[in-house]
DNA sequence: GTGAAAGCGCTAACAA
DNA sequence: TTGTTAGCGCTTTCAC
């Protein structure tokens, strides 16, 4: 490969090898039909001028883009980072690449990102959508950009989806706390509810009802601004909020482990002991959950597998006989030391 | 926007509006020169057929790609996830997108990724490189794909770079331990040393020398396989290794906080108390470090700022009068409860 | 076995 | 003010 500056195309290769561009093209896509000697010369020329095929030009001729977009709440959120890693690994096996985007729970960003991705004519989009109205996603799919949902119920949409049973997750957390004897439980979530978080709250509510309690009394719904740039700090600040809002609360279920981490900090500052004074449940079971002070009771999800499955479904969309499917994972309760019977 | 299936191009818009393609193009890029009534008709047609410009075709005509590649060790590593978030946010302000890739510390993957990115004719590449030989990166840059290094000394390369002073980071960790009275310190790293990790080890060595000690006695260099899929577990397993290799070791500096997390687990299993029996220092100061059991002494780096600065430098490469620069951040020691004087 | 030519969707220079 | 035209780098017929 030479250091010749700027990029060179097939034309330069053809000139260097003394053949036509179509012969170069043949060497690249159907080497067997080219005379061995010619082929050798062309290959040598390719190395000499440092030729690399030009993706966009190939796309224009109908070769599909190797790029797949991933649209999540926040690519730095460890849960979605693992999802993306699962997507990336599955794509890599196909020579495809991951374009990762964050919405920060903002509809305008989501809209903008989808437009940008469509304009790039990506191979497809894997999205954990914010909004309830899925029209845009259906349109996108119908206009030729396959869409796979993650963390969002497929409903009656004509799309593939990979989900984790969030209602079950909420139930597991709720049942655990109820069994310990808690009768007033708070759910700490954001002001905007993406589908998975809403599902968990619903599961918690169902567990409370199933235990013969009235959610109006037993469930305190906390909706505070908990999002990307400062989730940990926001959760720490929520400690005071929770204590003043309702002193009778004896347990808090958090939207995720990161929020639980912040909340633990905030509670320490307020002099509240966990789990003696207050039980805390997280969500995700991130790698650090088991080594927090105290070790965090949480609900485990398999983010890497979710990502991998989503990529799998997306890649399958190109098949001619493709049927849209939903893959569902089950969450799992992990009991540690942040929960205990109420005082 | 209609639900008309498949994607439509300018031609369909032109037909729908009863004008030529170039008038459509004018409405899009120089609306002012088009007659108001014509413009209205064209805009209406654009919405009606759901037109979205075709990026690859525009690229072929010389419009630069909005896509920037990021090549790091592992996009799910919280440190690089934050770096990527910094990149993404800066790019978003310019309407650009982040293509995130992981090398898993493997040269062959790095090579393959760079080739793929170049083939996509991306706007540029931000890379935390594995290998010492930077020829490929220079070639890439000369062939028209700007390259910005992160976490790698710029040296005499004609490239932009964003770095954190890793030698200083290692020194800070070393000085802290030496001041506590430790005289035999282990450094836990991978078998392959990417530049930043090598720098930290070097800093530690320098601190030891500056204290008048002989690194041959005072520094135990542990090189174990510590990488992506199971870093935490590998570090946990390293506990036994450390204890058997050298019982006189009283402190361990880990390549990052995630490894420290795993090591803490492993040590607990082995019945070793931290910091009473062994002091542990991490690196990065991830959000969970301060709430681990015990709270982790570590060296803080500003990943989000590193990413943001790298994106800034990359975007600046398009300017005609561009000069390659290096931006350097300083790490900071954060003392917590995982370090104490040796017994 | 090799080359000439058309055209993918778009931009920009120029003509009308 | 609008339309015609020539390519960007590539793949793919179809002649030679």
From TrEMBL, chains A, B:
It comes from the Bacteria. One of its GO terms (molecular function) is DNA binding. Keywords: DNA-binding, Transcription, Transcription regulation. InterPro entries: HTH_LacI, LacI/GalR-like_sensor, Lambda_DNA-bd_dom_sf, Peripla_BP_I. This is LacI family DNA-binding transcriptional regulator. CDD domains: HTH_LacI (cd01392). Residues 8-62 form the HTH lacI-type domain. It holds the Pfam family LacI. It comes from Hamadaea flava.
């Amino acid at each position: 490969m030479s250091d010749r500056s700027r990029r060179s195309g097939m034309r330069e290769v053809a000139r260097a090898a003394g053949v036509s561009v179509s012969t170069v093209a043949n060497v690249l896509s159907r080497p067997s039909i080219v005379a061995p000697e010619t082929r050798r010369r062309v290959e040598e020329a390719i190395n000499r001028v440092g030729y690399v095929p030009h993706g966009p030009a190939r796309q224009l001729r109908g070769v599909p883009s190797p790029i797949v977009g991933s649209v999540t709440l926040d690519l730095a959120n460890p849960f979605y980072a693992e999802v993306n890693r699962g997507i990336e690994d599955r794509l890599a096996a196909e020579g495809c690449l991951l374009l990762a985007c964050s919405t920060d729970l903002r509809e305008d960003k989501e809209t903008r990102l989808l437009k940008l991705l469509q304009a790039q004519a990506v191979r497809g989009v894997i999205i954990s959508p914010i909004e309830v109205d899925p029209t845009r996603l259906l349109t996108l799919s119908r206009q030729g950009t396959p869409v796979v949902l993650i963390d969002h119920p497929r409903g009656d949409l004509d799309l593939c989806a990979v989900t984790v049973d969030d209602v079950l997750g909420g139930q597991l957390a709720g049942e655990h706390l109820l069994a310990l004897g808690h009768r007033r439980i708070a759910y700490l979530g954001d002001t905007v509810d993406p589908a998975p978080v809403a599902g968990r709250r619903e599961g918690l509510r169902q567990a409370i009802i199933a235990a013969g309690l009235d959610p109006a009394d037993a469930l305190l719904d906390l909706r505070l601004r908990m999002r990307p740039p400062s989730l940990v700090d926001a959760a720490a600040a929520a400690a005071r909020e929770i204590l003043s809002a309702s002193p009778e609360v004896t347990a808090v279920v958090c939207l995720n482990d990161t929020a639980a981490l912040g909340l633990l900090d905030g509670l320490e500052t307020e002099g509240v002991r966990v789990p003696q004074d207050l039980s805390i449940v997280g969500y995700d079971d991130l790698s650090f959950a088991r080594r927090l002070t105290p070790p965090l009771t949480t609900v485990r999800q398999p983010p890497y597998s979710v990502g991998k499955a989503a990529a799998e479904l997306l890649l399958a969309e190109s098949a001619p006989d493709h049927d849209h499917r939903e893959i569902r994972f089950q969450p799992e309760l992990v009991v540690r030391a942040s929960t205990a019977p109420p005082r």
